[in-house]
Amino acid sequence: MPLFFIVAALISILTTLGIVTTLVVDASKFFAVVPLGEIFSTNLAPLRAENPTFGFLPLLTGTLITSMIAMVVAVPIGLTAAIYLSEYASAKKKKWLKPIMELLAGVPTIVYGFFAYSFVTPLLMNLIPSLNAKNALSPGIVMGIMIIPMVSSLSEDAMESVPHVMREGSLALGTTRLETTLFVVIPSAISGIVASFILAISRAIGETMIVVIASGSSKNLTFDVTQSMQTMTAYIVEFTSGDAGSGTVGYYSLYAVGLLLFLFTLAMNLFAQYIARKYREEY
Amino acid sequence: MLNQEKRKQPQGENSIYKVSHLNLWYGDFLALNDLTFDIQEKEVTAIIGPSGCGKSTFIKTLNRMVELNTNVRTEGEILYHDENIFGDAIKVETLRTQVGMVFQKPNPFPKSVFENVVYGPRIHGINDKNKLMEIAEISLTNAALWDEVKDRLHKNAYDLSGGQQQRLCIARSLATEPDVLLMDEPTSALDPIATYKIEELIDQIKKDYTIVIVTHSMQQASRISDKTAFFLMGELIEYDKTEKIFSSPADQRTEDYITGRFG
Fold it and tell me: pLDDT-derived band of residue B263, with 50, 70 and 90 as boundaries?
């Protein structure tokens, strides 16, 4: 019987190893042709018949900018919602509020993409006339809305697990509920809260459909959020849908981008663990 | 209804709390039934009684912490320095700053020893480093903990022993300069030596503070308190000088309880 459980545990480890192996092996074929330095250049023209270039910097900034916009939306709203749910809402209100919020996470991302493209973008155009039909701002905001429940739900769990006696200790010193939340509950729950941010940003970095639909495929390096930007994931979508023939450099560039994406989220997770450990207040 | 002459109050002293016809319900359950008595300033008042008699509920009412429970309803009044604590004139935060509380189980914050002690003063607006350090030293000294922690002020409070943690919680309460210290079975989670230290500490600080202590231990009540109140099923059965309660109680039920016939 223990064998059964070991096998179950090994399956996920082996799968991860398999994925990493594939990424590394195929990416190495890419790097055999394209020098490592080139991917940090800004010139991305993978389909040019003669002398294609593979500067991934525009993809990197595209990914970072859309994810950052998402976090700017999700962190304050998600954390505020978590504070409300954990510290203020009555048990009765929480019972129906939390599942409804979590419904947001269950909406298929293609619907979000459509929502970003056909609703949020036109809405934003009223405010910013120079906004392009495909831009980074709208999908960024919509991704932020999508990951709110992730932030709020996980942060709320972390805050909920702070023992009640901590709050009593603080309130008995004549502090308000908000002060107790800010200076006792949140510091005590900070590792869980930071973990929720990181999971949310990993989700945003890996998100594909929304940015494919609403941010387009412009491969120019820009920091202007009103412009179209391609993310790493959107690049992979573009190339797996048949633009690059198998065996070409363009084809192998997918693996290089995939590897980059993988390293990105790995670094994110390590960073999260470091932060969580550094600021942990154990009780 | 008790009239003024029958108020259970030893004469000729300063009352800090005047409790009048206090009823408290948890939902439909009447937890405190028509309590009327006074608590004297700069004295130790012990509340004794069997489990479920309302003694914890009562001291949590004195700083309105009881309202953290759901479905709590009160009637009657409690005057604190002649101000009704349920009225609008006194903010609950102000009340709790003046009325400190120590809980059954030590509950330091997951912060350093220093940060625990200065938590209250800091939130109440003191930011000066030297001033905070001074407050920490005074409070910890008053809580008979300074010598043990002065070299580890910036270590996590959870590295301290249970007894030290409880004295840290007392120091944390003293740091906001309260008039009253409410203690809800403060030694029930501690060993005899740590208990002894807390009792010794209570003896040292009682000249400066009004202390109301709930205790399960009759010995503790008789050792440390000036007045003792005996509660039974939400009612105040007897309230008198501690020697009187433990030597010649007026009520048969008090005698039965303190001689260990029930509870």
Answer: low
Q: Please report residues of A whose CB lies closer than 8 A to that of B169.
A: 169
Which residues on chain B are in Cβ contact (under 8 Å) with A168? 65, 68, 103, 107
Mutation target for A interface from B97, B119, B127, B165: give the one with most A CBs within 10 A: B119
CATH class for the region spanning A56-278: mainly alpha
pLDDT along chain A (283 residues), means of 10: 88 93 92 87 81 88 95 97 94 89 87 95 93 93 95 94 94 96 93 89 91 89 90 89 74 90 87 76 61
Expressed as residue numbers, the domain containing B240 is 14-258
Is B4 among the domain residues?
A: no
To the nearest whole Å, the CA of B73 is away from the closest chain A CA by 17
Q: Are A260 and A187 in contact (CB under 8 A)?
A: no
Q: Say which residues have a Cβ less than 8 Å from residue B250's Cβ, sequence separation at least 6.
A: B238, B240
DSSP A36: G
Q: What's the Rg (C-alpha) of chain B? A: 18
Whichever domain contains B178, its CATH number is 3.40.50.300
Predicted ipTM beyond 0.95: no
Q: Is B160 part of any domain?
A: yes
* Beta carbons of B101 and A172 less than 8 Å apart: yes
pLDDT of residue A216: 86
Task: Nearest by CB to A184, from B94, B97, B109: name it.
Answer: B109
Alpha-carbon gap, residue A86 to A184, rounded angstroms: 13
C-alpha–C-alpha distance, residues A78 and A150, integer Å: 8
Q: Please choose, from the candidates A100, A142, A151, A149, the residue with its C-alpha nearest in 3D space to the C-alpha of residue A120.
A: A142
Contacts of A183 in chain B (CB under 8 A): 119, 123
* Alpha helix positions (H), chain B: 55-62, 92-98, 113-123, 129-142, 146-149, 162-174, 192-205, 218-224, 242-247, 252-258
Sign of the torsion angle spanned by Cα atoms B114, B116, B121, B126? positive
Residues B27-50: what's their mean pLDDT? 95
The answer to whether position B61 is within a domain reads yes
**With a threshold of 0.95, does the pTM exceed it?**
no
For chains A and B, count residue pairs whose Cβ atoms are closer than 8 Å: 70
